[in-house]
Amino acid sequence: MSGSGDQTAGARVVLEQVDKRYGDRLALSGIELDIRPGEFVTIVGRSGSGKSTLLRVLCGLEQPTRGAARVLASREVAAREAVRVVFQEPRLLPWRTVLENTCIGGPRGRDARARDVLDRGGLGDRLNDYPGVLSGGQRQRVALARALVHDPKVLLLDEPFGALDALTRIGAQRLVESLWAQRRFTAILVTHDVEEAVLLGDRVLVFDEGRVVESVAVDLPRPRAREFPEVGRLAGVLLDAIFRRSPEEGGLSRRAPREDAARHPTTLLAPAGLGIARH
Ligand SMILES: Nc1ncnc2c1ncn2[C@@H]1O[C@H](COP(=O)(O)OP(=O)(O)OP(=O)(O)O)[C@@H](O)[C@H]1O
């Protein structure tokens, strides 16, 4: 399994000098990103660093204050056509069945696709159940199926596993990875779990104060496991990057804070091979 390849249904995502301002607060500042079709990008960073704002800009819920965010498929397509989001809460309609929830808002005739995704998520025998009788992990798999029924070019995942217990979380991660490998959409996942970011990402971006301060390429075979020494090492690198700019908050810094890194706009084409691209 690989994050790159020629046969892809995913779209390229390009952000050019994107700022997002809320009053006096700059939630995103000078974001320059180039995400290739079918790439799996994960995003980590402290609370309030701008991760969710980036996803909201990408799905069209927010407009940049400056700059442009573009989804480039065979042609430039509107975010609402090409981009789907899965949030931490599944947001299902309690009075609709699993199958009905999955098909809501989707194109007609997508029952077969919905059944296929639900089946792959282990819900093939729960199609006529209502959300109230499902577990948290099952509900989240319905939310994932609902997003994929639209055949998105880009799938945005905003802490989708955050509320799940550890075992259910591992199952959900594997499901997302296998669906991504099969359908080749471009995936952008926000997570607070640095190991999860390494397990799933072709590239991990570290956000701080609305900027990308680090980009870590993960060139490891898939599926990956937390027990891989390299996974642990890269997770440590990410923690270091997250906390080094404010060691008094995290206390994990082993290096001096990098004064210059966050001040300069970054261009983040995924570097080949394992390593950290510094900007
Ligand atoms: N609608 C809004 N109005 C005003 N400020 C906002 C709004 N949305 C976000 N912000 C601010 O923008 C900054 C970035 O918020 P964002 O939700 O993107 O952070 P985050 O990295 O996703 O945080 P978390 O990990 O806690 O979810 C924060 O300072 C937040 O207070």
SSE layout and pairings?
Layout (H helix, E strand, L loop, with lengths): L11 E11 L2 E11 L4 E6 L5 H8 L7 E7 L6 H4 E4 L11 H6 L7 H10 L15 H13 L5 E5 L7 H18 L2 E5 L3 H7 L2 E6 L2 E7 L11 H15 L3 H4 L24 E3 L2
Parallel strand pairs: 3-7, 3-8, 5-6, 6-7
Antiparallel strand pairs: 1-2, 1-4, 8-9, 9-10
Adenosine-5'-triphosphate binds next to β2 and α1.
**Weakly predicted, low-confidence segments:** 1-7, 249-279
List each distinct ligand once.
adenosine-5'-triphosphate
Mean pLDDT: 83
SSE-based structural type: alpha/beta
| Overall 3D shape | globular
- How many helices? 9
**Beta fraction:** 15-25%
Q: Please provide the count of β strands.
A: 10
Cross-sheet strand order for the largest sheet: 5-6-7-3-8-9-10
How helix-rich are the residues, as a percent range? 25-40%
3D architecture notes:
Residues 13-234 form the ABC transporter domain. This is ABC transporter ATP-binding protein. Keywords: ATP-binding, Cell membrane, Membrane, Nucleotide-binding, Translocase, Transport. The protein is of the alpha/beta class and 279 residues long. 30% of the residues lie in helices and 23% in strands. The chain contains 9 helices and 10 strands. The chain has a 7-stranded mixed beta sheet, with helices on both faces. The protein has a 3-stranded antiparallel beta sheet with strand order 2-1-4, covered by helices on one side. Strand 8 (203-208) and strand 9 form a beta hairpin. Helix 7 (194-200) packs across helix 8 (229-243). The protein binds adenosine-5'-triphosphate. The site of adenosine-5'-triphosphate has 11 residues, from strand 2 and helix 1.
